[in-house]
Design goal:
This protein is of the alpha/beta class and about 350 residues long. It has helices at about 15-30, 45-50, 55-65, 90-100, 120-125, 160-175, 190-205, 220-225, 240-250, 290-300, 305-320, 340-355, and strands spanning about 1-10, 35-40, 70-75, 105-110, 130-135, 145-150, 155, 180-185, 210-215, 235, 260-265, 270-275. Helix 1 runs parallel beside helix 12, helix 6 packs across helix 7 (about 190-205) and helix 11 packs across helix 12 (about 340-355). The longest helix has 18 residues, at about 15-30. It starts with a strand and ends with a helix.
Length: about 350
């Protein structure tokens, strides 16, 4: 089986963590009857420096011709003062919109060996394993009109029925394979768009009577994620609220450097670590490769149906963490941190051992 992967390393630590993830895919290639063909494309600030645009037609075309996309990270202080449409982050919005990646999946799972790395108490965190399902191509980030002048700035938060319905169906389908519990998060006490969101969610729920559905206001949800994260299994929410809640969920697990994500549409799929470009440690061999490696595990599972290989990668990560290895972002006061390369090689070694068991 030949599979084409578009690799968009991006800015900062993006190229470093992508390199680690590709090493893992190369190992999977050796162990299974599969061939990964990697093609590299520019995106973000470095792409702007080369081409005057953060996302070129060549990159977009390359993504559309691939079976999956692996993205590193984009952005950095160097490009902060650019006009909005030229910022590295604008490339992500255009990419999501062009590929119609309407579902963003952000797992928030706490590894047992990482229970002491979070700012929350161990007993609050233990057993936490939920997913934030964020609608990714609608809402306030894409709504029009939008603008800014000397006196005001304005944005429009809008959702159409089909946009809410398709992400809701995705949430219920995923819930059927998990604990059959969905929490839909909105602000229906204040926003008409959230009232509409809730109406559509309730309508779709009639097709999934076995799913336990509850609604929660976003401010309460933010508090509850910190107070009692174990109560959640799948959180279904809009673009803006999902952006915020998934980062809160990320930090309770210890570090954003640990968390993968998948952005899926009907035809295309993109996988990326949740963390940013971390320019302060770029090129220093200090980045945590786990989020990127876990992202390709999600790719193997969700895009290629290689669930067993994905599970082996996750086990390899867990064994490495259990051995006490930590990169600088997750190292405690008494831990000696290791480099990106050392962490990657340990994960590779553990993955290979599990394959051979």
């Amino acid at each position: 089986m030949d599979l084409n992967i578009a690799v968009l390393p991006g800015d900062g630590i993006g190229p470093e963590v992508c390199k680690s993830a590709i090493k893992v895919l190369n190992l999977v290639e050796q162990k299974l009857n599969v061939k990964f063909n990697f093609k590299y494309y520019d995106i973000g600030g470095n792409c702007y420096d080369k081409n005057g645009s953060p996302l070129t037609e060549e990159t977009l075309r390359g993504c559309m011709e691939s079976d999956a996309v692996l993205l590193g990270a984009v952005g950095g202080p160097k490009w902060e003062d650019l006009p909005h449409h030229l910022k590295p982050e604008a490339a992500l919005l255009k990419l999501r919109e062009s590929l119609e990646l309407y579902t963003n999946i952000r797992p928030a799972k706490v590894y047992k060996s990482m229970l002491n790395s979070s700012s929350l108490k161990k007993e609050v965190l233990e057993g936490t394993d939920f997913i934030v399902l964020r609608e990714l191509t609608g809402g306030i980030y894409f709504g029009k009109p939008r603008g800014i002048d000397d006196e005001k700035g304005w944005n429009t938060m809008i959702y159409k029925d089909f946009e809410v319905e398709r992400i809701t169906r995705k949430a219920f389908e995923m819930a059927l394979k998990r604990k059959q519990v969905v929490t839909s998060v909105d602000k229906a006490n204040v926003l008409e768009v959230s009232q509409f969101w809730r109406q559509i969610v309730n309508k779709v729920h009639k097709d999934y009577p076995s799913i336990k559905l509850s609604h929660m206001y976003v401010d309460n949800a933010a508090m509850q994620i910190v107070r009692n994260p174990k109560q959640f299994d799948i959180i279904l929410t809009s673009n803006l609220f999902g952006d915020i809640l998934s980062d809160i969920a990320g930090m309770i697990t210890g570090s954003l450097g640990m968390l993968p994500s998948a952005s899926l549409g009907k035809k295309y799929a993109l996988y990326e670590p949740v963390h940013g470009s971390a320019p302060d440690i770029s090129g220093k061999n200090l980045a945590n490769p786990i989020a990127a490696i876990s992202s390709v595990a999600m790719m193997l599972d969700l895009s290629f149906g290689m669930t067993k290989a994905a599970e082996i990668i996750e086990l390899g990560i867990e064994r490495t963490l259990n051995s006490g290895l930590r990169t600088i972002d997750i190292a405690g006061e008494n831990d000696k941190s290791v480099s990106t390369e050392v962490m990657t090689e340990s994960i590779l070694k553990n993955i290979e051992e599990i394959f051979n068991e």
